[in-house]
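tool_log.txt
---
The assistant was asked to compare two proteins side by side. It first ran the structure predictor on the initial sequence, then on the second. Raw inputs and outputs are pasted verbatim so the downstream comparison step can read them without reformatting.
(1)
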Amino acid sequence: MGEDCSEENFWLQIPYFCGHHPACTIPGNEWALQEAKRNLYRHYLVVGITEDFDSFLSVLETILPRFYRGARLIGAQNRIVRRTARKIPPLPETRKQLEASKIYRMEREFYDFARAKFQTIKYKIQNNLLHPGEKIIYQNLVPKTL
């Protein structure tokens, strides 16, 4: 793998959501991962995922209509901007090396955690379990382990 694929370069989401504590910047720090998860649940109403960006805009329109009315329309108009011109997938052996990395696995765990929270909110909206204008109550979304 090249220099741009070094493990330290993958330590991105966790320190961002972890905060300013010095331990947040240490790649592979388990405490930082747990703190990032806690912060995501305590301080963020919703965090979207890029591969489901249209759903993210839809969720924002539903839970914060005053600020995001029409967001899906704007998102659709700018869809071309979010495309990669020439996407080259990694070789299978490169992917295997990445997936073996502790830092990659931690970042993936955090991503899956954030994605699950987003999917829960999206599900509630799509199934009329969360109505427009209804306040999202964090403790209803937070797992008991946090």
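(2)
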Amino acid sequence: TYRVDSGLYQWNGTEFVWRQAIPTNGATDCEFFTIGDEHYLAVANSRSDATYDLNSTVYRWDGERFVEFQSIPTNGAADCEFFTIDDASFLAIANSQNGGKIDAVSLIYKWDGRTFIGFQPITTQGATDLESLKIGNDPYLIVANGHRGDLYGVDSRMYKWDGASFVPYQILPTQGAAACDVLSSGSDIWLAVANGRDGTTYDVASTLYRWNGTRFVESQAIPTHGARDAALFAINGRPFLAIANSRDDATHDVASAVLALTNDTLR
């Protein structure tokens, strides 16, 4: 069954210990955020045993535990992303399908002071991940599109805030994109996209992009095997990329990798 609880753990000074069960259905992502002095947790529910069309949930901290605050209708929800633009707060949810159709509408919700209300729909194809970022004074939103039916060579897209809504800005060619992540390091801005498959093979390259002042350009293709996630991070100012590999064409027993950026090349 997909009806299994997720869990909240609390750090006790030496380890994480169980704190609270959270009812979920095929949960795919959770996002913690704060608005004013209130703390929230959004959980993306992807499916029940019968349907992909079910509510995802925003919980609010009551001082002791997270309690259900708002239910949001979703369709195979794969990711949720909270971000702010000036004084406004937004929650975007990536819907991977709608009634079995991969062409779905993902939605951006805006906080109205009491609750999240629908703000902007974005047409997506098997959406898997969302990443918000700000470059200079300009907010952007990246959507990783995973597939369109049996077609995995679908473009992911970058949107730019025009002062009123997000508008298409850049196309990112991807192969079964499963995740994306962004890192600002010094004067550089990096974008990593984990590509999972192309319909023929799981042994497809994932991509590291670098911001050139106006757009992301490919910096390096990275051999990966059914990549499911990518995480960019820095230690003492040095960028790293972790890639979670899920399988190659023969086996699920494949190594994942952590790569360090040296002279603008991941090794």
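---
observation on (2): The radius of gyration is 19 Å. The mean pLDDT is 97.
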